[in-house]
């Protein structure tokens, strides 16, 4: 297995924290360095569908321990989700190991991978701004999940909710630094380092305004579409949020979501009133 040690560290086979966060929902939390400096952490979420198949959201390196976890969960990987333009680096190895898995991701990501010369992994469900409203999920996936494509987000986000456990899964929509669980098997403090501390001013607070401002001013590239996506997700029922970067929000996730996206929800309501 070949993995970029600048991103995942040189001892990624022994630093993953694998745990069941809810019935049929298992996380793989690993140390991950953004641009080789920022301690963002990385996380895959493996969910067992009612049908028995597995959904792997934002795959992390496929180590022996992770492979054993997949086997223990039944071994049938039905779906691989590459949730945005940045979260795709391990799709190739996972698809090679589980060739029957169907891949979900933004069309723009597939185009990016082709240009970069990544492995040619076809996307079975390729999301765009125009097709997202009409695309029907397969019955086994739709039985347990809802999906929203944030085409208005700068990273083209795929966000999913696992209805049986009330768990929202997302990549770069919400951060919850410092990434303590993800760096818990690595010497040192997850909050240490100059650039990590700088980044935490933007990505650490779920209650203050810093991350809310970042989302509003930097991440919302198509505000109208972004607002509509936020409103749809707000209609889902969830209490837990699993971010790819930072600690899991174990409870109170819906209140957290509404605080961070209050401006978008207000804007969506205003836009709705204009059309009535």
UniProtKB/TrEMBL annotation:
InterPro entries registered for this protein in UniProt: DUF4336, RibonucZ/Hydroxyglut_hydro
Coiled coil (residue ranges): none
Name of this chain's protein: DUF4336 domain-containing protein
Organism: Drechslerella dactyloides
